[in-house]
Task: structure prediction
Amino acid sequence: MYIVSYDITSDRLRNKVAKILLGYGKRVQYSVFECDISQELYGQMYKRLAALMAGSGEGNIRFYHLCGKCEKEIQEVGIPKGDVCDMGDVIII
Result:
């Protein structure tokens, strides 16, 4: 698993980065994604994002690799993952 986070000042660039990341993982916070992908897909994702950021000077993207043992050590408090209300499931009358 890879954790990818970004801090990008440009709305346009930030939206492009988020769109790419949505193709490889799921958003867990506004600028943080969990990507449970193979090393090959990681390489693909990294190259796409590096090319997008090349010379932009508008922020950065950080990549963290979690090994299988580390994944088992992930802890969270609060609302369990998957229990957060998705606005796509809400009907307002």
In short: The mean pLDDT is 86. The radius of gyration is 15 Å. Residues 39-53 form the longest helix (15 residues).
